[in-house]
Design brief:
The structure is a single chain. This protein is mostly helical. Among the domains are: about 80 residues, Tetratricopeptide repeat domain (Serine Threonine Protein Phosphatase 5, Tetratricopeptide repeat); about 50 residues, Serine Threonine Protein Phosphatase 5, Tetratricopeptide repeat (Alpha Horseshoe). The chain is built from 16 helices and no strands. α2 runs antiparallel to α3, α8 packs antiparallel against α9 and α13 runs antiparallel to α14.
Length: about 300
């Protein structure tokens, strides 16, 4: 009878243990799904709470670590994000997406060498993924290795020709190496594919400005403001273009609009001071120059 009783007690204990494991695993997945929902809603702080709990309950739940790393990256906790992505990769070494997430986190930290390694590893796992070639091309662009950047961005376009961001990055590379016509072509294609990025119009405008096509530059800066009216930079750039074209009243108007949106920009105050001085409006120039110096001094204390 005793051996039978011992066996029953053992089986009961085993069942309780297995049930608690299953219960903990299910609870971890519940926290994971809550965290995922919060991330999708842009609520990173709440996502962090749920995803940390998921990882505590089930440290081997790689998806929870992946999303936790994503939330940490979004909040700017890059070192902690790197730890989570590395732990997730240990659990899922063939997950190429994890390599890309880790690579982008390194890129944000300014560690381009490690970013390039991770993007290259992702490509080995999925060589026909255009987004991964784009990521590697972006890293080489930031590294200033333009030939490599063109090579990988070109591969990305062959794999996914409708990926708008690749065309934008290629346009940026061509601007850096002064292939201005090619830059314009790529940026126009990027905008055609995805016309809702204000900064892409601004970049295209800057290419036109570099070519000396100031009227075309102004048109693109205005398009940027149409997409996002709350920006100060396009007003500053329109003011610069008008100044170059000799349309000084219009330039002053644009600089003032820029200051309404960003009153603590030393660059805007400096441009306005320089224009006032050029026009012989010395008192107004001195006011802007004084404000420029005050802002620089304030920023140096931060």
């Amino acid at each position: 009878m005793r051996p039978l009783l011992k066996l029953i007690n053992f089986l009961v204990a085993l069942l309780i243990f297995l049930f608690s494991c299953l219960s903990g695993a299910q609870e971890a997945r519940d926290y994971l799904e809550k965290g995922r929902s919060y991330l999708q809603e842009g609520r990173a702080d709440e996502a962090l709470v749920e995803l940390k709990r998921a990882v505590e309950l089930d440290p081997k739940l790689s998806e929870a670590r992946k999303l936790l790393g994503t939330a940490l990256k979004e909040k700017g906790f890059l070192d902690d994000a790197i730890i989570q992505f590395k732990n997730a990769i240990t659990l899922e070494p063939k997950d190429a997406e994890l390599r890309v997430l880790l690579g982008y986190t390194y890129l944000e930290k300014g560690n381009r060498e490690e970013a390039i390694k991770e993007f290259s590893r992702a490509i080995k796992l999925k060589p026909k993924e255009g987004r991964f070639q784009m990521a590697l091309g972006q890293a080489f662009l930031q590294e200033g290795e333009y030939e490599e950047a063109v090579h990988h961005l070109g591969k990305a376009i062959k794999l996914e020709p409708t990926l708008a961001e690749v065309h934008m990055l290629l346009g940026e590379v061509y601007l850096a190496i002064r292939k201005l016509n090619d830059s314009i072509e790529e940026l126009k294609e990027a905008i055609r594919l995805d016309p809702f990025h204000a900064s892409w119009y601004t970049l295209l405008g800057s290419v036109y400005f570099t070519k000396g096509l100031y009227g075309e530059a102004v048109k693109e800066y205005m398009e940027s403001l149409r997409v996002d009216p709350g920006q100060a930079e396009p007003h500053l750039l329109i003011g610069r273009a008008y100044t170059t074209m000799g349309q000084f009243d219009e330039a002053i108007g644009e600089y003032k609009k820029a200051l309404e949106l960003d009153p603590n920009s030393p660059e805007i105050h400096m441009h306005l001071a320089a224009l006032y001085r050029r026009l012989g409006r010395i008192v107004e120039a001195d006011v802007e120059l004084k404000r420029y110096k005050e802002i620089i001094k304030e920023k140096s204390r931060e």
